Amino acid sequence: MTSGIAVRSATVADAVALATLRALFLGAGEGDDAFARDVAAWLEEEGERRTTWLAERDGAAIGMASLFEYRRMPRPGGGASRWGYVSNMFVREEARDAGVGAALLDAVIAAAEARGYARLVLSPSERAIPFYARAGFLVPGQAAGSDRLLVRPAARPRG
Predict the structure, then answer these.
(1) What is the rounded distance in angstroms from the CA atom of residue 90 to the CA atom of residue 125?
(2) What's the number of CA atoms in the CB half-sphere (13 Å) around residue 14?
(3) What is the C-alpha to C-alpha distance for residues 62 and 20, in angstroms, rounded to an integer?
(4) In what order do the strands lie in the sheet containing 50-57?
(5) How many CA atoms within 13 Å lie on the side-chain side of 89?
(6) Structure pTM?
(7) pLDDT over 70 for what percent of the chain?
(8) CA-to-CA distance for 45 and 24, rounded, in angstroms?
């Protein structure tokens, strides 16, 4: 917990809060009941391969992040591997620059490490690249125009 911020795994019961955050992220107001039902259905359909976190302060939802597990087909002489795609990272404007995003990203990274993911991948906005770089994400082939795809190797860099 960082300065009154609690981060926890979200459930279908959190669909209204997640729908509100998603609508704000998309610039679509705060959503409505139909959108909340769509988010609830999406959460159920995604099942165990997607984990979504909710950041709260004083019981109010102020941020979210999502992690989808990709499973690679096994190779001869080696087993299957798994990696995670980070998405839906959003913090309400009035809660930014207070450690909420970092707390969410820490939860995502801890889950990925606990699950033994080979890497984490995401496609951030240009503005968010320094935030993810501080957490160990790299831009592969940056000179080749990677279209902002960032990768975080399994072992978190120290320093």
Answers:
(1) 11
(2) 21
(3) 10
(4) 5-9, 50-57, 60-71, 82-91, 119-122, 150-153
(5) 25
(6) 0.84
(7) 88
(8) 23
Structure tokens at 157: 């860099």
Domains and CATH numbers, the chain: 5-153 (3.40.630.30)
Residue recorded with tokens 């002489």: 77
**pLDDT digits over 97-150, tens only?**
999 999 999 999 999 999 999 889 998 888 888 899 899 888 776 544 445 566
- Map tokens 């993911």 to a residue: 117
Contacts of residue 51, Cβ cutoff 8 Å, sequence gap at least 6: 9, 66, 67, 111
Q: How many residues does the chain have?
A: 159
